[in-house]
Design brief:
There is one protein chain. By secondary structure, the chain is of the alpha+beta class. The chain has 2 domains: 3-20 and 62-163, no CATH class; 21-54, no CATH class. The chain has helices at 3-17, 40-47, 98-101, 116-128, 160-163, and strands at residues 68-71, 104-111, 138-146, 149-157. Strands 1-2-4-3 form a 4-stranded mixed sheet. Strand 1, helix 3 and strand 2 form a beta-alpha-beta unit.
């Protein structure tokens, strides 16, 4: 299946599946006076097993998506990022906190630039048709594959501007 079709179909299939994350096990920590800690919700999240997804049980929306997308073919991964443009159009009301609920994207790529941070970010933004939110962007070096050719992974949260684009 084409990478673009796979991304769109995976999101569509998950939505249709009725998958719901299990709620976090409630954990109440007792303070000195026997009162519940102000950080009860944080404690519940922190106490959940690492492999178990944790849901925010205080919200009533039914938004479902993947937490992460890993684009692991460095020679062509950036080319497929356009599939995320408009992926959630019409769902703005279902996603009250896009900076927390939209998926993280981890895209492997090559760069020969002396400024790989700028090079990779600019290429990603050009393909996606919008700006990345700099507070969510992380670029890390993976390995050298040839002289003057390094592999990187850029990780970022899918920006609402791109996710809801029409």
């Amino acid at each position: 299946m084409d990478g673009r079709d796979f991304i769109r179909k995976a999101v569509e299939d998950l939505e249709k599946s009725g998958y719901k994350r299990p709620p976090a096990a409630p954990v109440v920590q007792k303070g000195k006076k026997g009162a519940a800690s102000k950080d009860s919700k944080a404690a519940a999240v922190a106490s959940a097993p690492v492999s178990a997804p944790v849901a925010d049980t205080t919200t009533t929306h039914a938004f479902k998506t993947f937490d992460h997308f890993v684009m692991n073919l460095p020679a062509s991964a950036i080319e497929f990022l356009d599939a995320f443009r408009g992926l959630f159009k019409g769902r703005e009301a279902d996603i009250p906190e896009p900076k927390k609920q939209l998926p993280m994207i981890h895209c492997h790529c090559f760069s020969k630039s002396n400024k790989p941070e700028d090079d990779v970010r600019e290429r990603v933004e050009a393909v996606m048709g919008g700006r990345l939110e700099m507070d969510s962007v992380n670029l890390h070096w993976v390995r050298k594959v040839a002289p003057n050719k390094d592999m990187y992974c850029i990780s970022f949260r899918l920006p609402a501007e791109i996710a809801f684009a029409r």
